[in-house]
Design a protein that fits this description.
It holds the Pfam family Fer4_7. This protein is an alpha+beta fold.
Length: 195
């Protein structure tokens, strides 16, 4: 019993002395180096933590962080939403009555994005959405600090189409489809009447 008490006291003393040693050992700021630096794992001077936000860790080139969408290049193909394993991308498209422009790579745009939301609270940063995008409009940026107070603030809305404009675009497409159907029906009746 006495031996266990001494052993517990000795172990606690060693841990406390190590903590106190590190507390007073260095108050210099840590030098930030990249992982590719030869001295990265041999750093012994400076504090154990960086002084964030004054100091920030370097972001690797292949880092996968915050998603961003360039809507001018989006053709609203919905591939990113279909491949997403956690369904964090929500897209609603409206067919246009004619071509509405081109992307930076020359692809013709024929759909409006009434809604293009990404819920970064659900995102698992796999990068699959960036791989399947044919126009490369969805990318992962080097922004990793997106601290918010409300969980709903992590849902980013990239489409700037208002509900009124979306309803107008839907009505125009429905009108065009009705006109096509009426013309097709008239042509069929004319064909049947002439035969």
């Amino acid at each position: 019993m006495f031996k266990r008490l001494i052993n517990g006291f000795t172990t606690a003393w060693k841990g406390l002395s190590l903590t106190v040693k590190h507390l007073f050992a260095s108050n210099a700021a840590r030098k930030i180096t990249t992982v590719s630096d030869d001295n990265y794992f041999k750093q012994l001077e400076g504090t154990n933590t960086i002084q964030y936000p004054k100091q920030q860790l370097p972001v690797p080139e292949v880092g996968r962080y915050q998603l961003d969408v360039e809507m001018d290049d989006c053709i609203v193909c919905d591939l990113c939403a279909k491949v997403c394993p956690v369904n964090c991308i929500d897209i609603e498209s409206i067919k246009a009555t004619e071509a509405i422009g081109q992307t930076s790579d020359g692809t013709t745009k024929r759909l409006y994005a009434a809604k293009f939301d990404i819920d970064m609270a659900k995102c698992m940063y796999c990068g699959l959405c960036t791989i399947v995008c044919p126009t490369e409009c969805i990318v992962m940026t080097n922004q990793y600090d997106k601290t918010v107070f409300q969980l709903s603030d992590l849902t980013y809305q990239f489409s700037d189409m208002s509900p009124e404009v979306a309803a107008e675009k839907r009505a125009l497409f429905d009108q065009q489809q009705a006109e096509k159907q009426a013309a097709k029906l008239a042509a069929m009746q004319k064909k049947e009447g002439g035969a």
